[in-house]
Records
---
Amino acid sequence: MSALAAAADTVDGGQRALTISLFVIFVVATLVITIKASRNNATAADFYSGGRSLTGPQNGVAIGGDYMSAASFLGIAGIIALSGYDGFLYSIGFLVAWLVALLLVAELLRNSGKYTMADVLAFRMKQRPVRVAAGISTITVSIFYLLAQMVGAGALVTLLLGVSSDTAKNITIVAVGALMIFYVTVGGMKGTTWVQIIKAVLLMTGTSLVTILVMIKFGGSVSALLGEAAAQSGKGDAFLNPGLKYGTDAQGLAGKLDLISLGIALVLGTAGLPHILTRFYTVPDAKAARKSVLWAIGIIGSFYLMTICLGFGAAALVGPDAIKAQNPAGNTAAPQLAEAIGQEFFGDLGGTLLLAIIAAVAFATILAVVAGLTLASSSSFAHDIYASVIKRGQADEKSEVRVARIAAFAIGGTAIVLSIYAQKLNVAFLVALAFAVAASGNLPAILYSLFWKRFNTTGAVSAIYGGLLSSVILVFFSPVVSGKVTPGVNGAPDVSASLFGLGTDFSWFPLENPGLVSIPFGFFCGWLGTVLSKEHNAEKYAEMEVRSLTGAGSEKAVQH
Amino acid sequence: MSTVHDRSSTHAGGGESFEQVQATDEFQGLKRTLRRFVFPATALFLGWYLLYILLTAYARDFMSTKLIGEINVAYVFGLSQFVSTFAIAFVYSRYAEKRFDPTADTIRHRLEGTVPAEATVKPAKPRKPAKPTPTSTVKETST
């Protein structure tokens, strides 16, 4: 905690005021847009899918805003700044993943579904069991992801505003939670979308600015940047090679397998994330869904390319010691780089200004992502569990949307309370867990239901529960939950690198990322469940196939 | 159920059932057109990505070979993943526009009984075999 206190000293009042003012401008602008969006929020299609009236490019930018989380912005830059090349693995995995969405999922999902992931999974199956499974999976994935983001917001306020008291963190978490509930309940999908679009534009502008300055500083030479980063890192050439963080020789076989497991989960998880899937419903047709993924790939690809500059730039210009002094995990590398490079080019004021901008962008990033998650999970609760299961399909649209709003309050409130309690815990693994569940349970179910004729209710339910449970159980018994110790350096005491503290160790699964086992297991469960059941609805299969490929009978945009 | 599938489940529109549409050569061709591209492309990019991950895990010396200045094989390989992603996305969008969309649209319009919207947007198809429209008529309408 002394490092945090030190961080508090380094943040001066002027920068704090500037960051807060910029952030307040963002909040006010998004609130105004949300309230404006709420005027066109009459029907369920408006609330869940923004009336399906976004254009492809708009949705593509919003997907970028929904997807590029604070974990990828601050986290990847930090990993690269401290461990060099290995952080780049995330950037690559997070981008390549979009090809799964583009080639196999986006268009067919847009044509056959309506509001949620379960619409596609339950299309030709028995509604209730499949919707319950898909609803549980959606809410679980979203809450894991949500907790990681909100606890991150609490930590961020310490790092960026220099306020380290628990009260300040709690206030931040409550404020982030309250804003996200407001965006979702008042603005619905349209409001949330505009928050994400604005955030994406700010994030791209901020990172481009820092990247351009870094490249000017190194005379446009990536090689020079890498050389300086390696020199400053104190690790020499090893800093530029794979293997400092993942799959190190010391970790042995488990380390190598963990690296492969992480890589697979990153690539297969994205197309199973419910808050991403629901974004494909916001456009008028499959062609626009395709176009939005193309835009998303362009934006997300450019962003992840810039993480190289952010990470190595921070290593070269800030240095690992200064970064670790603020945050041992390196989460402040990007803001610190902004300050250093701003100072270099425009003096002290420039440094303060650029730091404030990047800090405000980081907060905006968290807000946009948590809003998307809350919307996806509350939609699934209202549409899949309330309307289809509790009311057996007899709920009218109005009450469904009312329930979605109440669910947003409930889920948001739960997330706030859990985040406050989870603050002192090491919850970074939750994002990886969310990706693992999405890749192991949701993706097999989606792919089988779109491409495998024989697939049926038992198969869908088995795939979802098999993937979900195997991921959660394996992570529970892995080193991220118990038994991982970071040895103290220079006589300092050992610290726990797990969720549980020192002395608790019930782990038996050696990998931190369960994907290598849980993804094949999810696909296997889906296959096994299918062949064990004779159910097949040829009529609904024909309808689904014709509809998903041609768009005939697909949900149309709302005319206002 | 009813909230999700409010349309009749058997009739695709235009007097055809979905099963009838599904059985047509036209539809089966459309399905093949899509699968012929997306399945091999998926195998390709997943294999390419897996190769990258495996080399990162097991071929450290090879990946650490310097190529240009400080830039080693690992970066070039990593960047090539970006390039291949952009390229596959671009090629797919071209393929889908040319080979897939026209047939999908034809079937959809037939089933929904709608007029192709593109006809009014696109600069009218130039090939009209029956009437060789003289350029003068175009000039007349434009003035």
---
Amino acid sequence: MQANWAAVVHRLMDALPDELRLPLAFSANDELRSSEIAKLLGIPEGTVRTRMMKARQILKQKLSRLMGELYAK
Amino acid sequence: MQNDDRVLEQILDESIASYSEGAPLAGMEERILARIRLAETPSSGITGWRVAFGAGLAAIVIGAFFFSLERREEPRLTNLAWATKRVEAIPIQIAVPQIVVKARHRITRMTALPKKPVFPTPTPLTAEERRLLALIKQDPEGTALAFNSLRRKSDEPIVIPPLESDDGQ
């Protein structure tokens, strides 16, 4: 079940725009700090944090809706 | 509700952590390489400014050089001579009204007018004079008497009779 949801989340992450996807992927996968991601992407550190939060919110919202629809049936 | 939220967060964390495991992120390599290249090369903005500043400075130096060359070609003159030369160089086009001075006609003749032997110049006889002349030639004595009587009459004083009005004054 967890593996299935992971695949769903990965599909949702693929659908995100790069500006939101990359900070999240860097932080999770490569365990980079916000300052390092900011240097890599050439954007301010605050922007990196904001984009990561926004990406997480979108993923959470979509995942919640999908779960709701699935369990409602 | 809180339980659901926690489950969601857990699923998200695990899913995100396992995202692109073993495979590089799409576009990640390009971005990292681009950033590295950008960090290695000097800032293009600063370089651009430097190039622009250098080009401007070079243009000013070249301009000043040619200007000084042009000035050197001019012979050194005193202030007055220089000013005079500059004034001469300027083409002056002033419409000057043409003043026509009429010369006085002085009566000066180099040669005298030809003098005629008889003065006044004899004019041809009129028709009346010719008839009188013919009369004299035809009857000189009668003509002389007639002239004498006329002369006498002309010598007598002219008597003018007083004017008479209707009132008797």
---
Amino acid sequence: MFARGLKPLSIASVVLIVGAFALVFFYAPNDADQGFVQKIFYLHVPVAIVALLGFVAGGVFGIRYLRTGDRSHDLRSYVAIHISLILAVAALVTGSIWARAAWGQWWVWDEPTLVSFLIVFLLYACYQPLRFSIEDPERQARTAAVFAIVAGAFVPLNFMAVRLAESLVHPRVLSATGGSMPGEMRLTFLVALVGMAVLFVTLWKYELTSKQASMQLRALKRALADEDDSWVPTRRSAAPQQL
Amino acid sequence: MPALPLDDAGPYVAAAYLVFLGLILVYVAIMAAKLARIARELGELTEIVDRRSAARRERADEEEAVPR
């Protein structure tokens, strides 16, 4: 069900990410202001954007689950949030490294962009413990969907609030006027962004396929156990256990 | 803000890209471990099914061999 198109997606991910990194180091010019350290931008910003979009996608799948009751949407939402959390960690760490190199500090607490991203990350860090705390699968899926929708709506609101706030040191890259990146930089950034988005979709599909295989295996075990008249205990998990 | 000389900026840029690659590699390693577990469990289940089928065939053969 989820494995379709995985091979071309995997190839596209590798080609785009390797291509983007090649563009970063061999094509895009050094930034006149920050110099070589600005190369982190091509990694940090796409990772952060894709992580935030992944959180929103988790909310969209949450809505679809509540509307249809189809468990596969709950699984899609869970996996999207799971992978976005990993990317959010990457965005926080790479951002922190960039901050240390450019501003001389690992973290700036009065910068709205940084703090708001941390708040979004911490909000979603509650998602898995929330799921794990609910044993009944139906209730677990419903509560997780509501959480994903509310938190997913918080992401664009948060983004807009940050845009309205006065930035102290964090640059505004994407603006209504198209920013001020020269052509080579913009092309490199766009390739990196598309590459990151394709990588996200690939990892998402990998995880979905793996989860589905585990579920089918469990179902097979249960069926065999029924024949044996013995009982196979099901492990409590934050992840959806059946479709 | 003055541009950092390459000597100073290099380790930071390398660290950022290595962190990302490291995270992806760890994720892929975890996925590989999961896949290995699924393959092992699938092998065990296949063995159980094979054993059962063999036992069923044996029983059927014995029943056929018993004179009526």
---
Amino acid sequence: MNERNPSDRIAGWALAGALFVHLLLLRDPAAIVLVSYLILAVGAVLRSRQIFAPAWLERSLFLLAVLVVFLTRRGTPPYLLIGELAGIVGAVFLLRPITPSRGLRVVFCILAVLVAAIIRPYPGVGAVFLVLDVVVLMILTQQIHRPPEAAQSFWASLVRSLRVVVPVSIVVILVFWLFPDYSIQTMPAITGFSGSNVLDPGRVAELSQSRRVALVAKFPEAEQVPEASQLYWRGQVLERNEGLRWSRDSGRRGPPQSLETGTPDEDVPIWRYSQEVTSNRGGILPILDRVVTVDASRGGQEIAVLDLGASVLTAVGAGSLRMDVVAAADSASDAPAESFGQGSLGVPEEIGANPELRQIAAALIAPDSSTPEALRAVAAYFKENQFAYTMRPGRIPNVGKFLTTIRRGFCEHYAAAAANLLRLGGVPARIVVGYRGGDWNPWLRTITVRDSDAHAWVEAWDAPSSRWMRFDPTNSVAPDLTTQLENDLDSDTWPWWRLSAAFVSAFFTEIGDRTGEFFAVVGASEMWESLQPVFFVGLLLFLTAWLARRLILRHMQHSRDLAASLLTDLEFQAVRLGRPRLDRETPLAWLRRLQDAASDAEKETLDRFATAYTTGVYRAEGLTPAVANELRDSASRLKKIWKARRRGTVKIAS
Amino acid sequence: MASRERVYIIFHWAGLVFGFLILLIFGAGYLSRDSGALTQTLGITLVVAGVVALIQSNDNLRGIDILGCRSLPTAAGETVKLEVTVKNSADRERIGLTIRTGWRIRPRSSAWLPVLEAGETATVSLALPTARRGRFPVPQLWVCSVRPAGLCFAWKVFPQTATYDVYPAPRGRPLDQEMEAGGEGDGDRDDVSGHRPYNPGDMLSRMDWRVFARTGELLVRTLEEGGEEEVLLRWTDTRFLTNTEARLEQLSFWMDQCGQEGRPFLLDLGHPPGLSSASLTACREALATFEEKL
């Protein structure tokens, strides 16, 4: 048993490759997924030698896979179970030769794996990948079903598929455009952890894999844009200290209140900008530190913005928002209340009782040190003690191990460690989570912030100024990040391709915006109401004309078919009479030859048919109903004559 | 015959599974807060893919036409080989076509046409089982396909006006035992007019073995023009049988025997219109459509 056709072999390899790629999307190191890889590898080795598993082995493996998955993976989310099962079943299918139906089953398994991969909280693929993936799978499916006799090149099949895929996609996009409620663009995309009340170890690392847009801020021409060191989009403030894990002390702040803004000092820079915020998990509005005023709207309706305390904002209702913001470059001024659950100096037992950590804190922060001095000391400690920045630090059990042994981590580790050191040194500190930086577009004057820009930093209370001072310990260990942010904001240093990409993006966004504005203006105008019936009638007329043209063409095609089929019918009858149409003999030549050997009645009928055929097929007037009737009538008479003649060749012996 | 471009499409089993999968995806997207947009995007894209498959299935049958079909008379009990001529008048090739009879899930007969290039005409054979003699209408023919994506089953219907003939199964006694009474059919008394060299395909019974024994040369006896070598197969000669069908089978047997031995024959079906013919096909048609006049 083997795959006789080269196309089947190619399809087998292509399906195995596709399944392998989709299993990678699961990003799950579960043993069952590794088993799928193993079966795929075995299948690949066997396939290269054109050896295939018997049917009984395939069935046994199916049974075993179902049992193993459901017995060993209890408690696993159903979507993961389906993905794992589909992966292993697809791999087992590939142990046997590829046939059209088997290939289709593998494609279904791949789709199931894809669903399992995207239904998880932070999928590794986006909408563009999905659409392209479906197109590729569709082309693969067509190749699988193409008979070997009708083999064609990959590019030919691709082009032919695109002939249909592209128009249908355009129709789908038009539908989305006409019915925006069903549009994938307006579906709420949940982003970020800016609203989360907890900062767990690894949360930022997980979030950094997502490229979803959290917010887009647009700065008017006349307004200044913040510098890289000021681009901190404030999200949630966390005060409850559990070492590496920090959470919000919701009991301290009380219910949300209306936003009460303090007037900033005159020398503090003010930023005025508008931003669109995608809905996020807790409804917290990430906003440039520190907010002064906010006007928010959703779908044209004004929305009330509430203050959760510590300049943490939330909005009424769920969903994305458009906001006009005035923000100041100074920091929050809410006092570090003693009524905190632990107090703003609280540290967990394991840290407070750790003599090594107490010793480090005491060495860094003297009892009479000011807050800026303490912050500088902590920054210097990270800088001078071989701390390294990495998104893959491995397992970090607690702050003590991180500060004394591991010394490798990312923003949330450094924020947690710095806040603990400050608290041990007697400086009230808390952690802020949100975003830092963003993609600057100089033409649109927008900053696009994504989930991958998620960040955590520290705020330390400065009693003399009665303000919280922002302190980002990550800057001490990753100065490159700061430099990169500065470069990102300075478009003069960009390479040409980056400028071009930004320009193209700006160009199409501008066109889209202007088109939208145009239709909004037109749709709202009185003129549109009077023009609407005209457009409607025009569209109706156009569709009627198009339909009529199609019907006429179809009728003409049908007529041509009629002449050809009547001729073919006569040819079959003539064969029985022993007077077939010869190879390369034109219909009219054949009819003339028949006339030469025909009786008078037959000759006349043949002449009628030939004349009608000439008119209907070759003349400009085409096959009019009268000519068609003449053709039918003469053909029918001819058949009767020939039938009688055929009987005549059979002698009547009576 | 002209056929209107009417293509019918239903979902194949794979299409039903595909549809179910899309429903599951939408359901999962509805239940999942995290990836609702992505799953709905995937679902909508798959719906588009399904629509594309539907359109392509429809396209794969457009321009396909059955020009006609024909068959030679066949003995009852054997299978009729129905030759069907299929034409692709579209400007692109058509793949994976099945020509079959009727709507049954398991058709009585089907033929596989892997590819039909643009403008090409092909002839396929359908095997129709036969049980009794007669003239039967060719059943409605379908051209169907699950290509190119395997998700949809599309078909076009071609009603047929043609007929096929089934003549009686050749059964009975050999000719020479019964034809002595016929008088005219005696192959041994052919008037030999001369000899000609042996050509491949010549009947061995016409070989002149005496000349061969004498000279070693292979010569065939030629018969005199207008000689009485024709065997007359008469309806009345089958009177030793009482059943009409048995008598027709006997005549069919004799015709076959004559054909095998290369002996020309005349068929006389007795009562008006009695028939005789040098054409085997015409005689078989006569046997197939014979109706005894009482």
